[in-house]
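Dear support,

We are seeing what looks like truncated structure output for some complexes. This example has two components. We would appreciate it if you could run it in full and send us the complete token output so we can diff it against ours.
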Amino acid sequence: MSVPLKLIYNEDPTRSNGNDARKATVRPIVTYNNISKSYGDLQVLKNIDLEIAPGEKVALIGPSGSGKTTLARLLMTLEEPTSGTIEVEGDMLWHRRVNDKLVKANEKHLHQVRGNIGMVFQHFNLFPHMTILRNVMEAPRNVLGLSKEEAKKRAITILEQVGLSNKIDAYPAQLSGGQKQRVAIARALVMRPKVMLFDEPTSALDPELVGEVLEVIKAIATEGEMAMLLITHEMDFARDVADRILFFDQGRIVEQGPPKKMFNNPESERLQTFLSRFNRH
Amino acid sequence: MWNWEYTIKILPEILAALKITISATFVAFLVALVVGLMLTLARRSHFRPLSLTAHGFVEFVRSTPLLVQLYFIFYVLPEYGLSLSPFIAGVIGLGLHYSTYLSEVYRGGIESIPPGQWEAAKALNFSPLDTWRKIILPQSIPPVIPVMGNYLITMFKETPILSAITLVEIMQTAKMLGSHSFRYLEAFTIVGVLFLVLSYSSSLMVRRLEVRLNLR
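Here is the complete output from our reference environment:
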């Protein structure tokens, strides 16, 4: 894959090369270096190299089981890579460099780096024993250490942005799927991550509720600053929102490119087959 | 035949001993509640010496009779320098014994929490301690309170076993009164009625609590 960006944090000062000019280039916010993940005999991700630029919106598409979700989960530290490293803003996530050796990172280090990443889940995973307001406030209070008033202010602002300010005292059980997912998005957003992962955010929703959630995600994407990794089967939406589309199949990135090219001129046969299934709708 | 005069005469003594029975029940239950949760967390620990020790303790306690454990604590430990009063030995023995059962109850509650809750906590970068305190335990404990309530009642009915290590609770009191006067009918009937009334009314309260928790 594209190597040049990595040379920016080459620690050897005696190596001079034409790439010094590239120091002006922006450093990727997330880098997957030769990442593989296996569950026993089943290899789910095969030697993935991937760089995501700050603020870039990347959509991951592909058949079920192709490894898209695993890729996201590895970044969110919900799974550990079998081999390879992941970097977030130049900091290695799962490893630490100790005296030139790669050592597995401890929870303290993971906690530090994990703060830059947020995730929205397919099945929302709201905390059922808390009100909507508390769901959104709890992490800013306990993790970021904000005061109750400050956390409440942030939470209410975000909940207004997703259109749920009238539900702050309700409990998750009283909300529709679309509302729950919007709360989940607010809850993740209030932590101000640099990268946000969306794991099939609308796949568990009734069709008529999908639109309201996609609208919120689109608004977030338009605001600009946060990189987004969007795993979705909503092709129109992906085409609309993404800067780059990655097509996954059987643990590899088969093809990638800007939405126009990917959807209008798919190069690989596998992508063509995959997309043809959507055109039949 | 039944003698009401005698009944009224012995009632104060038995009621005085009831305080012992009830306090032993609650202290032992407290021990079981605290140690039970510690055992559950220890068994889940990734630190193998801790989890194996906890597992070993649970297996040992559940595989030996409570009476044997009580004898050990009260009669054997003094030979190694630890002399405990009947009450202390009793609540420790009873509490530790039932902590293993409560540990299972806690475990059931915790394992019923969907993995998505753990994942959401991790995604929001909650510390492990806060994950337990704010997200997991508040969801896992209310559903198991009725079961814990039943164990409290069970432990209450188990307290006569503490008479084996010379704790004078109500059954032992009745026995002593009976052997003194050769009248066993009134004494044991009183004790039986006390157990019946207290256990049954407690079980009704547990059932009401269950209904109230479900409605939330």
